[in-house]
Specification:
- This protein is of the alpha/beta class.
- Helix content is 42%, strand content 11%.
- The chain folds into 2 domains: 300 residues, Spore Coat Polysaccharide Biosynthesis Protein SpsA, Chain A (Alpha-Beta Complex); 93 residues, no CATH class.
- The protein is built from 19 helices and 14 strands.
- The strands form 4 sheets. Strands 3-2-1-4-7-6-10 form a 7-stranded mixed beta sheet, sandwiched between helices.
- The protein is elongated, with a radius of gyration of 32 Å.
């Protein structure tokens, strides 16, 4: 096959087995082809993929150490890999290549040259999640976590609107696609997070805008980027050892949310599994899943999953959690907007304790009339919309109530916090019923005092004294 393009993927250390499999499957169909893998979380070059593969690290594609450290602290490993995809594509295009970007969890099963040719002509070639017309929402179950009502039905079309019309797992970019890559990279630099409620779906959601902003080609033919969404009304068919879908050979199969340790399930994600057909209903797809799982496990997936990458924890071993990443990202965005100092980055100097102390410090600009809330706990408040909905003014008027609630929420399992940041339980307050009685008693005293100071009380004072003396005499008093 033609070698006038380069196929490439981004793979973190935990997913190098998948990278080995997708590269190997590419060479099966492109013996003279070129394949590159960017490993974003391997600064010491401890990992390797395949001697036939061009192995890259972020500095090789023009990402300096400081920016890498910023992105590695903002993003989880998966988000970091997604944010690097467009940067890898830009590197390839700038050096004169047409780049076919494939996700690591894919299997190449045919010639990818037509996709590269389309990108060379149009600048960008995109593949949709699905070209199947699916059933309306009421044919599907409710979204998990919502009340079990038809009003809350969550069908395939809704999933694709939320996740993005186009799947970022397979696209190609030619020389004319450089403006698209610059636009994409600008957005994924700080907003490559998985937050569907805010219309953010890592690198992928942005692609929905591409046809209205850039020249592009949309691949609608069956066989490209085939995944579980394609199987609503059909199965993978086999002609000998060659899988097909819709009567066309499959060029790429995308194992979205697939767990090689559980090949009997097409997806490990509950909401997706609820709307995709099961493996028992699609035996042809199940056969392909079993073959893929065997290859990934043979490529070292189990050992890779046990790996701990350097950007997943601090130098002292403290795991980096989403609250830390969120509060750092907020401080960095404020700094880049000219609204504050640059936050400390422990990847720059290894200063784990300094970063932890920074997280301990109160959030900037707090009103001294309210209890202080640490940066870390503001990170939790920023990240979870339901926490914000319950405690709007944090730090501020709701700070005391927020700090009282957190230990109880941790104990119930509503939120997960390291012990360092769990506020001490608040001392028990007075009995509310007793407080109510005290309020009523004070109200009665105030009313009595007001009455005693009135003119009528003073005028009738002699009559009250005479009545008191009469009662005493009647009872034998002196």
């Amino acid at each position: 096959m033609s070698a006038d393009f380069v196929a490439c993927t981004v793979a973190t250390r935990r997913y190098l087995a998948q990278a080995r499999v997708v590269a190997d499957s590419f060479f099966e169909h492109h013996p003279q082809g070129r394949f590159a893998v960017l490993i974003p979380d391997d600064p010491e070059h401890e990992s390797t993929v395949d001697p036939r593969v061009e192995e890259l690290r972020p500095p090789d594609i023009g990402i300096d150490g400081s920016e890498l450290h910023r992105m590695a602290l903002i993003y989880s490993s998966q988000e970091l890999a997604c944010a690097m995809k467009g940067r890898l594509g830009r590197h390839m295009v700038q050096r004169g290549d047409t780049a076919v970007l494939v996700d690591g969890d894919m299997l190449v099963l045919g010639d990818l040259t037509p996709l590269a040719d389309a990108a060379r002509r149009s600048g960008v070639a995109l593949t949709p999640h699905s070209t199947t017309r699916n059933a309306p929402p009421d044919r599907y179950p409710p979204m998990i976590g919502w009340a079990p009502r038809l009003r809350n039905a969550f069908g395939v079309d809704q999933m694709l609107v939320r996740a993005g019309t186009f799947n970022a797992g397979l696209l190609a970019v030619g020389p004319g696609g450089l403006p698209f890559l610059e636009w994409w990279n600008e957005r994924t630099a700080r907003y490559c997070v998985l937050a569907p409620g805010r219309a953010l779906f890592s690198d992928q959601g942005w692609l929905a805008l591409v046809p209205t902003l850039f020249d592009c080609h949309v691949v609608r033919e069956p066989g490209w980027n085939v995944n579980g969404y394609h199987l609503a009304d059909r199965d993978v068919e086999w002609e000998g050892d060659r899988p097909q879908v819709g009567g066309e050979p499959i060029r790429c199969f995308h194992f979205i949310t697939f767990d090689p340790f559980a090949p009997e399930r097409l997806s490990r994600e509950p909401n997706i599994a609820a709307v995709w057909p099961t493996a028992a209903e699609r035996p042809g797809a199940a056969r392909l899943c079993r073959q893929y799982a065997e290859r990934v496990l043979a490529a070292g997936h189990e050992a890779a999953q046990e790996d701990v990458a350097p950007f997943e924890r601090l130098a002292d071993g403290t795991p980096l959690d989403p609250n830390m990443r969120t509060v750092y990202a907020e401080a960095l965005l404020r700094h880049e907007a000219g609204r504050g100092e640059a936050p400390p980055n422990p990847f720059d100097d290894g200063g784990a304790e300094g970063f932890l102390r920074w997280l301990d410090e109160p959030w900037e600009g707090q009103d001294k009339g309210f209890p202080a809330v640490s940066r870390y706990l503001v990170g939790l408040h920023t990240r979870l919309d339901w926490v914000y909905g319950s405690f709007k003014d944090v730090p501020g008027a709701d700070a005391e109530r927020y700090l009282r609630w957190l230990p109880e929420a941790v104990e119930r399992g509503d939120v997960d916090l390291p012990e360092r940041w769990v506020p001490p339980p608040a001392p028990p307050g007075p009995d509310p019923a007793l407080l109510e009685l005290e309020d009523r008693y004070r109200d009665l005293l105030a009313a009595l005092e007001e009455h005693r100071s009135s003119r009528s009380w003073r005028v009738t004072a002699p009559l009250r004294r005479a009545a008191t003396l009469a009662r005493r005499r009647g009872s034998g008093g002196g």
